[in-house]
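Progress narrative, Year 2. Work on CCR4-Not complex 3'-5'-exoribonuclease subunit Ccr4 from Tortispora caseinolytica NRRL Y-17796 advanced from sequence curation to structure prediction during this period.
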Amino acid sequence: MTDALVGSFHDAQVREAAAARQASSPHHYARAAAAAQSVPPYAHTPVQSHQTLSSSNYSHNQSPLSSYTNLADRPGTPGRPLRNDQPNGQYNNKSTNLVRTTASAPSNSWNSLDMSGQGLLNLSPALFNFTFLEYLYLGHNNLRTLPAGIGKLKYLQVLDLTANFIETLPPQIGLLSNLKKLLLFDNNLQSLPSELGQLYHLELIGLEGNNALPEEIMKTLDESGTKALISSIRDSAPVSLPPAPREWIEPEMSSNSHRTPIDPNSQFAIMTYNILCDKYATAQLYGYTPSWALANKYRQDHIKQELLASDSDIICLQEIDVESHEDFFLPTLSSKGYATVFYNKTRPWTKTDSEKRNIDGCAIYFKESKFQLVDQQKLEFNQLALRRDDLKKTEDVYNRVMNKDNIATVALLLHKQTGSKLIVVSAHIHWDPAYKDVKLVQGALLLEELAQLEKKFYDMNLEPPEGLEGPMPRYASADKIPVVICGDFNSTPDSGVYELFSTGTVSANHSDLEDRVYGKFTQEGISHRLPLRSIYAGLNELPFTNYTPGFSGVIDYIWTSTASLSVDAVLGPVDSEYAKNVVGFPNPHFPSDHIPLSACLHFKSQKDSISHKSHAGDSAKK
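Result:
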């Protein structure tokens, strides 16, 4: 590192410390903002906001209190687009900002609070109810501690604690993942908590004047800067205790119902898991994760342990690339008795073998001792759209649907213990919130194609599995064929996709379709005849299935056909106490930004069954 660069980091500390020390008068920033507003706009250069946070142009005499009189003009205001639409014909992918790592503060008429220079000895707990705050000035007071409640102010971008008497920082400081400036000049800090490593957006930490801090900390800061110091703290932090294991939950029975004994032979366990493709697991997207915990080998080994520990009969994975499937998961699971159906996204512009091996897709692994593969399908949603005459004629299909390469993998299975047919889907719907209409169209096309596959499967006269005891089920109609749809739907429970899957219909004027034109979908609405239910529907959905600093919510599901499958148990939520003390996943305990969903299901008995003898007769008639 050059002397000039080393000097620049140290000089920035000295310069920022001098500016912070000058802001010692009561309500310095509020007064500066008021003074700036009282001067006619033509009489001075407009006051810059703390929104401009690079140390090269930041001054403590500049205040955000006078900026953005219209809140909607502020960057990151809810309701404003977080991402730009991709140009026509260009594919989106996770590496182009899929993950919302910066949260937007709730809309409010003010977002800054200046309590500097007041001689404060303590902070009222009520302060931490202002969770919308983005700028908080507490410098030049007599504070000796910073309450743990500071962790509630998750939208803070600037926190000024200059010239107090603080000796330690609470671990909750690490929850301020949006923080860009943390000014701690002239305090009595003796150490820094390891949780500071989670502040991956931090551009400046001010530590000058804390003479009791270890020399190594100040040396790293002076020689390499804030980013290097935070990275070092993050990668060397001790691993926290793991969360309590997720518990299995059984659906409650109504007072009038009686639980019928379940035939163990009719039961099977299923898991779905978006495992976070390696090419998307970058420090740019997941800067809060230690580099060693983001490494592919660590994450793969952790996922392997989760899959094997679940002992699921069927495992559905999303975001699994060709290389990981062929070199790791296929041999690993094959050795444990699993067979597989895997398809990757079709990207015709990929030329080299290495590029092709990095393409992700959807996989289904199933125990050969439990299931027999009858057929398999790759569903490409953009190609399914072209099969419909009413869709392929619309501009929105070509401009919005055709340039998305999402797929679903489908396996038609025969259950060896009961002879039951089962359709399993592992799907991955488009991610971008700006394309709610595309998500809904993809979901509709998936359900439409499944109806065709049900009919195909219904018409098949299959030989009974070897060793089957008792008759094979006879299904009254095609929609009675058992179906399980697993995947990352990138759609919350208030979305059109969820409404379509759970109720069977979405109106033509649904808000997710906006003013788009999608043939009969937007003329007549969307509907399907397959009765589906989320496995968590009777228990309320989980608090989240995807957890990052900028988004926490449910977007992964297991949908089951209610006419032919019953839910016996589901895997419960992540320990809430653990979750509220981490900024997001992945981390050392969770190898993906998604969590796996699991359920124990059983086949409902059918009124009519096909004996081995009559089945053979039916086959002969065919």
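The longest helix spans residues 436-459. DSSP finds 14 helices and 24 strands in the chain.
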